[in-house]
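Thread: quick sanity check before group meeting

JM: Hey all, I'm pulling together slides for Thursday and realized we never actually wrote out the predicted structure for the chain we discussed last week. Dropping the sequence here so it's in one place. If anyone has concerns about the input, flag it before I start.
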Amino acid sequence: MEAKKLLPLISFFLILLVRKTNAQSLGDPVVSITFGSGSSTHSGALPADSGSTSYTYSSANFPSDGSYTIENTTAGAGNVWWSATDHTGNTGGYMMVVNASVSKTDYFYKRAITGLCSNTTYQFSAWVVNLLRSNDISPPNITFAIEKTDGTIIQSFNTGTIARTSNNYQWVQESFNFTLPAGVGDVVIKMINNSAGGAPANDLAIDDIVFRPYGPVIEASFSTSSSANTASACSDVPQTYTLNTTIPSGYTVLWQYKNGSGAWTDLTGANSTSSSYQITSPSVAGTYYYRAVTAQAGNINSALCRSASNVLTLTVGAPPQSTATANTPVCAGTTLTLSASTGVSYQWTGPNGFTSAIQSPTIDNVTAAAAGTYTVTVKSSSGCEVTATVPVVVNAQPVAAVDAVEPICEGSSVTLNASGGSTYSWLPATGLSDASIANPVASPTDNTLYTVTVSNGTCTSTATVQVDVIKKPMANAGPNRYITQGQSTTLNGSTKGTNVSYYWTPTDNLSSSLELTPTAAPMEDITYTLHVVSNSGCGDEATDQVFVRVYKKVVIPNTFTPNGDGVNDTWAIEALNTYPTSTTQVFNRYGGLLFKSTGYPEAWDGRSNGQGIPSGTYYYVIDLKNGNVMSGWVMVVY
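JM (edit): ok, ran it. Output follows.
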């Protein structure tokens, strides 16, 4: 084979080798086309500053043959295409979707780039996806061409067949490198379909087109070791670092830095052939990045001609904004609590040999020896430190005392006497003449435990005194009682008061006059009096009375003879007339009422409605209205 025919093939394999091994360094993108993003499905036709195309714009989700669209999803294409989205996964990110022409293989994308450096190597890359999800009679096959402005091809690269995937769509990055000839700084990027379109055939999407310098490998580090890619410092303690790299023959190095997500900025005096550069860590906390960019001599000042090294990261931490606090002044015998804020480690020192490595240490039962200045060194997560101090005052503890008092009678008062401090506060305040003095007058109504808090201005202590109240005697003889002659009842007496004695008068017919609940069995109505006396001499004797009503015993005869002979002519019921509210009723055997009386003022003479009743047996019900109801029979005999 002729040598001139071998050159394109050799060039292709060299490009492929570089593309696969990525053995050199890339610079910042000269062109980066993402097609933007938005909330609507389509963004409109390809903007002029993003390139041009020989295809016709369509706003449909599924453009026809020979058409293209800019959209963020192909979900509207039904089952013909995969539901593809932007390559980077950006929300709403757009991509260029191309439906190849049936016969036309002209370019579907073209972009001019100016201001490049001749004799400089660049890399072109783009992400491509085969959209077809079923049959694909003519898969995408693209030629990427780099041309001079007059159309002369500088370098081209063919992707080969971009095969259809069976499970889901898959973005593929295609890239190649080329070197501009001497005197050439303006080029045209062109993408050409090598496969015809049709149904279904050669339907693709393209995204993230990038064009950037591609130079020799240079490794940067914070020392002579290439592995030292990170360093740290504190904003309040400047550190000096030496940035190192290798410089390829014939190239110049320029050092750059940026803060966070800012833009890369050239370092002053960093444009030289020296392989090292010295920096001082910034005094403002943040993350700083450094790198070396390289280009052939004379091109170093053009961002379109430089490739870059790996990025070095310098993390500058701020000292923690920590303060030391304490519950000062603190009283002797209590707990001293120290505290520091904002840190990951702590180291305390203080009086009397105190040390601690926790954030909030405590000293229990503190003494005067703990007074003085405490110092804490706080370290942040970035390793930066700050020192804070807090003075601590320990005050003496007052000793509260209060005199004991004797019990008082109900309604009386007693003076309380406390000592040990300059101010006093009593609880409860109920019954006190003044709860804020040392010697208030106490007039409680019940037994009360008083607590006094004594203060010397900063510290307090407490003492207590019990005031017992001797209650005056009170008597309660209980409710009145009602019995029938011959019965007995229990008196329900009760007392109130402290240390009292009691007795009943009179003692007649009582089981005991010294019991609160004696049994009483009087034969006549009687009033009993309960006497209660204080054995402590508090209050006068208390009395209360209970009345016992004794009803007479009712004797009911079962026969009388109302024949007018003057003997046993009436139903004479003994003592029934002593029950003035009682009711007496007599019924015949059929339940007919024959006689009714209230109180029984006159004995029944055997008549009903003025007529004498026949001899016979009759039935009675007598309700004494005291809870006793008697019933039975009485015989009337003539």
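AS: nice. Helices lie at 3-21. The two ends are 172 Å apart (CA to CA).
JM: adding both to the slides.
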